[in-house]
Amino acid sequence: MGFFQGCFRVHQTVRLNEFMDLLHKRYASPFSLLDTLIENKQFSEYIQFLLNKEAEDRNDQMLWEFYLHKVFDKPFNEFKKDILVKSEGESKKNDATDEAKRNEIIERSNAILNGFVPY
């Protein structure tokens, strides 16, 4: 089951050749690693880890490029920490907004259903 979940995760996230490039970038010969992961039924978990790590690396690279070209007044670690704090604050704000929207939708749905009279 884990093998198919891992394959699906790869398919929905990246193309197969991009995935193989990612593996070859990290490992000289990833085939024995893949065989071992499949045998131990850890393929899906490793795929999730690898894709999360790649997304994190890509995000760090984008922050670094932005920092090099636009930020001149503070060190990179401080800049990165400030960006992450701001994004967490916005995420919490969006969660509260989403909760308010969800409650409003539920109230409107209940109002519609309360007015429904079956024949």
Defining traits:
119 residues; mainly alpha; 2 domains; 0% strand; flat
Task: Summarize this entry quickly.
The protein is mainly α and 119 residues long. Helices cover 83% and strands 0% of the residues.
Secondary-structure map:
Layout: H1 2-13, H2 16-26, H3 31-39, H4 43-70, H5 76-114
Helix pairs in contact: 1-4
Structure, explained:
The model has no long low-confidence stretch (mean pLDDT 83). The protein is 83% helix and 0% strand. With 119 residues, the chain is mainly alpha-helical. The protein has helices at residues 2-13, 16-26, 31-39, 43-70, 76-114. It folds into 2 domains: 1-70, no CATH class; 73-119. The protein contains 5 helices and no strands.
The radius of gyration over CA amounts to 23 Å
What summary fits the major beta sheet? none
Unreliable residue stretches: none
Helix segment tally = 5
Order of helices and strands: HHHHH
User: How many β strands by DSSP?
Assistant: 0
Output the structural class.
mainly alpha
Number of domains: 2
- Strand % is under 5%
Mean pLDDT: 83
Shape: flat
Share in helix: over 70%
Separation of the first and last Cα atoms:
48 Å
